[in-house]
Amino acid sequence: MRLRRFLPLALLLGLSLGAQDPALRDTFLQAKALWATQGDREGATARFEKVVEALAPRGASLEADWLAALCESYNWLAVLDDRSAPNRPRAQTRLQALIDLNPDFDVDRALTSQRLATLFDRLKAEKYAPVKLSYAPEGGKLLVDGRPGPPLARKFLPFGTHKLTYTRPGFAPAELSLELAPRDAKTADFKLVRVSSTVTLYVQPSGAEVLVDGRSLGRTQGKAGPEAASVAVPLGLRPEDLSEAFVISELGPGKHKLELRAPCFRTKVLEMGEGLATPWADHTLEPIRLESSKGTLTVTSAWAGGELFLSGQSQGPLPVTQLPVCSGAYDLLVRFPAGGFSQRITVEDGKALSVEARPKPRLAFLGLEGEADFTGRARFLAQLEGLGDRLQQVAFLPARPGEGTGEALARVKASREAELVLLATPVPDKVIHQVELRLATLEGEEERLVVKPLEQDPLGPLATRLNTLPVIHEPGLGLSLLDLPGEPGPWVLAASEPAQKAGIQPGKALTQVNGKPISSVQALRPLLEGVRGPVTLVQGGGASVTLPIQTEALEIPLSAPDLCYPAVLAHLRLQYAGARGDEANLIRLNLALGHMHFRAFDKAIDLLRDARLSTVAGVSQGTLDYHTGICFLRLGAAYQAEAVQAFRQALKYPQATLLGPDGPLVAPLARQALEDLK
After folding, report:
1. Euclidean distance between CA atoms 343 and 330, whole angstroms
2. Is the separation of the CB atoms in 557 and 470 below 8 Å?
3. Residue 430 CB: number of other CB atoms within 10 A?
4. Alpha carbons 442 and 502: distance in angstroms, whole number
């Protein structure tokens, strides 16, 4: 009898648990089988103990199937302990653990003896009171004191006051308050009042974002069960091909726009007619299938040995030609034997994207200069040799054994095998406690950093700075924005001509972006990252305005403590080698700023003189002219006339800014500079 009663339940539970932890599932089934087929109480107990040991620490946070397995294991252990006189006292402990874990779980009355079942009921009655529940309509969700749980017909709740809430899409939620005392047995009847229609969706693929009238309602999840067969089978689909049911509730009267988005698939837009909103009813749409959205990617390089990675996944050695790729944004990385290349790319549906990869700068460690011994020398040298493991933005070339620092520098300069060099020199003293690190480009720009070899992490600051790179582009909307006290959102200081033609009004705050409220410039920037297609904006209570996402230029800061400027210049020079047009001239501007950091104003002017940007707003031609004036000014009185001319040129671009589109306007600064020169 034990075998016939146990096997069907074991089979069903085993199927539901199999996908989560096959080994633990097998242990659970073996425990039942040992008792049911062989009467092996000790073997079954040992295996149930393993299940409890694995699951008990996670307790009530377990998924429903595993929670049931843990409860059943406690039930079985209580039964097995009760059959052994020495272990019988443990049976009550098992039952108490079961009750504390899930008071709604009932022991298997056919498996559990009458005496043990009576003990179980008495233990539960010491802490919990039964509540009989009814739901009209059924199919909703129950919350007890704010915690979700299954809408059972009978629940056991601790003594005290409890708030029960029952909800179902399309109906107003209902709340009840219960005061429970020992020996109470109460009822809770929920009768919901309908307040709107609902629309149930099944979508292929799962994970699609659902938007109604531009407002995101979340994403579809999981796989549909047998309940979806009636809508899936007529289309030649299996229920598991579709997502779980996604319910749209609170539909107002009238028509609505339904939008579905998913990575690698084309966005689908449907109109939901008035009949879905009124009269109030529950509706299920025919399953919605999204069409695949892909482009192609070609990556080539003049450097040999590169391997392509897209968002961490290897795509093989270069060259990669016409690789089918799902549309969307990716982190593109090419690893070279002595360097690498990285770029954030966006693959568009049906379009081909080509990328020419160039390695990132290489840093050659020349060695620890001299033979002077000092405490911690070996440890410090090992940290220098292992610096490459901590660097992401430069490729590290370790020192060659037996080669002096002078020889190493001559070799690197002759071979041009690195763009940066690092030399460590002990600072002379009676007892050496400091080492000077000199990091330089082959062109001569250098920074020096003094560290203490006995520090916990003497190279940490250097590694952090080498891994920090300024960006010279960001997604934007052709607007200059700033945060002003009292304004509801980013205030539009200036707008490009296309933005103004589209309806943007300078001097008014942005309040919504793609249907979402926006409170500051800082909150806006993340919303633009990775956005494909146009963006819908609202200023105050005005009409919506649609603007395309565009790339906006940025400047590197002149003196940022978190940047290693030789490395910044090395990166910019590598980027400039393959750049054209405005991109090349923007890099020239930032190279000039790097030289200005080192106070090499003559070199900066040489770069700025031949640079021309076609843009007139944000970081643009006016920005170039202003920096040219500053550099001439720093060279002294002999170049005052040239400085005046450059500042006057800058005045011709009233929408030009410093730093980025939201930076200070150039014209007032140029005007002040001219006043100061009078």
Report:
1. 8
2. yes
3. 5
4. 49
pLDDT for 112-151, tens place per residue? Answer: 999 999 999 999 999 999 999 999 999 999 999 999 988 9
Residue type for position 85 = A
Confidence class for position 20, pLDDT limits 50, 70, 90: low
Q: How far apart are CA 408 and CA 396, in angstroms?
A: 14
Tens digit of pLDDT for each residue in 320-350? 999 999 988 888 878 776 556 767 799 998 9
Phi and psi, residue 521, nearest 5°:
-65, -40
Peptide bond into 548 cis (omega under 30): no
Q: Residue holding tokens 């997604």? A: 475
Q: Tell me the mean pLDDT in the region 83-103.
A: 93
Max CA pair span of the chain: 108
- Tokens matching residue 607: 């770069």
The neighbouring-strand residues paired with 495 are: 479
> 571-596 pLDDT, tens per residue?
998 888 768 899 999 999 999 999 99
Q: Distance of alpha carbon 136 from its chain centroid, rounded?
A: 41
Burial of residue 357 (number of CB atoms within 10 Å: 0-12, 13-18, 19+): buried
Global pTM reads 0.49
pLDDT at 7: 37
| Residue recorded with tokens 């840093």 | 363
Residue 86, preceding bond cis, omega within 30 degrees?
Answer: no
Q: Say if residues 365 and 397 touch (Cβ distance below 8 Å).
A: yes
Token pair for residue 610?
């031949």
258's tokens = 């339904």
Q: Are 186 and 180 in contact (CB under 8 A)?
A: yes
Cis peptide bond upstream of 173, omega within 30: no
Do residues 425 and 411 touch, judged by C-beta distance below 8 A? Answer: no
Q: Which regions of 265-327 does DSSP assign to beta strands (E)? A: 265-272, 282-284, 288-289, 294-300, 307-310, 313-317, 320-326
3-state DSSP assignment of residue 94: helix
* CB-based contacts of 276, cutoff 8 Å, min separation 6: 197, 199, 251, 256, 283
Reported as type and span, the H/E element at residue 334 is strand 328-336
Amino acid, single-letter form, for residue 33: A
The distance in angstroms from the start CA to the end CA of the chain is 107
Q: pLDDT by residue (tens digit) across 499-528?
A: 899 999 998 999 999 888 988 888 887 888
Eight-state DSSP code of residue 346: E
Q: Describe the crossing of helices 64-82 and 114-125 by its angle, rounded to 10 degrees.
A: 120
- State the amino acid at position 211 in one-letter form: L
d(C-alpha 254, C-alpha 222), whole Å: 31
Tokens describing residue 570? 């090395």
Q: List, in order, residues 6 or more apart from 250 with CB less than 8 Å away.
A: 170, 195, 196
Q: What is the pLDDT of residues 385-399, one digit of tens each?
A: 989 889 888 878 889
pLDDT above 70 covers a percentage of the chain that reads 96
DSSP 134-169: EEESSS-EEEETTEEE---SEEEEESEEEEEEEE-T
71 membership: H or E segment, kind and range: helix 64-82
What is the C-alpha separation between 542 and 545, in angstroms, rounded? Answer: 9
Coil, strand or helix at 276: helix
> According to DSSP H, which parts of 420-489 are helical?
460-466
C-alpha–C-alpha distance, residues 526 and 519, integer Å: 13
**Cα dist from 318 to 343, 348, 395, whole Å:** 16, 21, 19
Output DSSP code: residue 657. B
